[in-house]
Amino acid sequence: MSYDRRMALSLPGENPPSLTGALLAAAAVLGLCALGCATPSARRHSPSVIQAARFEARRPERLVKKGDEGARFVERALHDAGLRFGTDGSARALWGYLRSSHRLVSAPSARPGDILFFDTRGVAPAPECADHAGIVESVSTDGRITFVEARGGRMRRSFVDPARPSARRDARGEILNSFLRPKAVDDPPGARYFAGQMLCGIASTEPG
Fold first, then answer.
1. What share of the chain has pLDDT > 70, as a percent?
2. Of 30, 58, 136, 157, which is most buried with the most CB atoms under 10 A?
3. Which H or E run includes 86?
């Protein structure tokens, strides 16, 4: 297949393209690109939930030690990642939103960016959702989940092992479950302390 590389000549009766016309055409192309008609690589993408959580963690003035600080930390990260919703700022309301608008996943199916919910104050035989929340950062091959949370006015990196909920450490001394509730002498019977004992639900941040 041949290709003619010569500059095209004007036919009799045609006017050569003017400089003004060329500039107008270029301006039109640039205008279309500005409106979002550029190639996909030029589009801006929202950060992942984990990236958003790390961004929030670098803003300590927003980690307030009161109320449902964990839920507010998670909700701000979800907003930063592009999700548009509103709640009353409580973990229970956040759980209700994600449960109805997204999908719940089992512990073995948890992935980075999923949202963990905990019952840190309950004493019932089974935990009820929810009064605390965190964001899955990573999942090890043996199922231990590393998550980020806001607690006590700080962003923390914590652990939960759904398969070994009542174990604090493994044989190598690595933490399996973080303490989410400090022990006190007046704790009621049935009080739980480890993250694995308190885990009550996991929600994906993908649409349901």
1. 72
2. 136
3. none
| Structural contact between residues 105 and 95, judged by C-beta atoms closer than 8 angstroms | no
CATH 3.30.30 fits 49-204, yes or no: no
Hey, where are the domains in the chain? 49-204
CA distance 173 to 156: 20
pLDDT of residue 138: 96
User: What pTM was estimated for this model as a whole?
Assistant: 0.74
Contacts of residue 200, defined as CB under 8 A and 6 or more positions apart, other chains included, come to: 117, 118, 119, 127, 128, 129, 130
The answer for residues whose C-beta is within 8 angstroms of residue 149's C-beta and 6 or more apart is 70, 73, 132, 133, 134, 135, 155, 156, 158
- CB count within 10 Å of CB 188 equals 9
Characterize the bridge pairing of strands 103-104 and 199-204: antiparallel
Tell me what pLDDT residue 49 has: 87
Furthest C-alpha separation in the chain: 101
Determine the Cα–Cα distance for residues 105 and 115; give it in Å rounded to an integer. Answer: 10
> 């022990």: which residue's tokens?
183
